[in-house]
Design a protein that fits this description.
- With 148 residues, the chain is an alpha+beta fold.
- It is 26% helix and 37% strand.
- Strands 1, 2, 3, 4, 5 and 6 form a 6-stranded antiparallel β-sheet that branches.
- The chain is globular.
- The model has no long low-confidence stretch (mean pLDDT 96).
């Protein structure tokens, strides 16, 4: 079970805005992409959710931008599940710039588990719940990044 999941990439040209740094929309796309990659890594690709007639939808995002990310910056996007309630879950993210070992952004998403037929919240399936380990303390994530 991958408690803390990460993806490394270099900032591509299409993510750069008129201010010559990463556009906020790119951060949102990367957050969604890494969340899907993490759940897939844990054995829950989108197809499996659909077979069970359930899925996750986003209730809200929060992003705190600490430093700008620029073209070709080497980033490590790290994500983990911070809590899981009856019908919702909080996923957190750190954007770590490897070249200077700095957190450039912190983010979180409130996800809601839904019945895809009704489009309404439903209890999180036990088999989904058991696939995700909870990481409550960002210090564990930072220790992992600093050791790399």
């Amino acid at each position: 079970m991958t408690r803390i999941f990460s993806q490394r990439f270099a900032v591509p040209a299409e993510a750069i805005d008129v201010h010559r740094h990463v556009n906020n929309v790119a951060y949102l796309q990367w957050m969604q992409d890494v969340a899907i990659a993490h759940t897939t890594d844990l054995g829950w690709p989108m197809e499996r959710y659909f077979e069970k007639r359930c899925s996750w939808v986003i209730r809200s995002h929060f992003i705190e931008y600490l430093r700008p990310a620029l073209l070709d910056d080497p980033l490590n996007l790290v994500t983990w599940v911070a809590d899981m309630g009856e019908r919702s879950s909080t996923r957190k993210y750190l954007f770590w710039r490897e070249s200077d070992r700095q957190v450039i952004a912190r983010a979180e998403t409130a996800w809601v588990f839904i019945d895809i037929r009704a489009g309404l919240p439903r209890p999180i399936l036990a088999e989904v719940r058991s696939a995700f380990a909870i990481v409550e303390d960002e210090a564990e994530v930072m220790a992992l990044l600093e050791a790399s």
